[in-house]
Design brief:
The chain is mainly β. It contains no helices and 5 strands. Strands 1-2-3 form a 3-stranded antiparallel β-sheet, with no helix packed on it. Strands 4-5 form a two-stranded antiparallel sheet. It is flat. The chain starts with about 25 loop residues before the first strand and ends in a 5-residue tail after the last strand. About 0% of the residues are buried.
Length: about 90
């Protein structure tokens, strides 16, 4: 007898949802920024979206003064993340 996988025992039907109206992206001729319009041609506010940057900075260490061979080296990296606008 085969036992059902654990994840399938937790599955259930998706909750009921309502249809989402279709939106069309267009370029605003004044600002040259993409905006979304509904089926009636009205601009739809999509909320605030910030931008962010992230970077991976590698670091490496070497033993001694470099005059002789051998020794262990170590490599690591540090990730930075900056966000200029919070969404919500």
């Amino acid at each position: 007898m085969t036992t059902a996988p654990w994840g399938t025992t937790r599955m259930g039907p998706y909750p009921e949802s309502s249809p989402f109206p279709a939106l069309t992206p267009v370029i605003d001729p004044e600002t040259q920024v993409a905006v979304f319009v509904d089926e009636h041609g009205h601009t739809v506010e999509m909320g605030a979206h910030g931008t962010s940057t992230s970077g991976l900075t590698p670091t490496t260490t070497s033993p001694g003064d470099g005059a002789g061979p051998g020794g262990a080296t170590d490599a690591d990296s540090t990730e930075s993340y900056d966000q200029d606008q919070s969404s919500g």
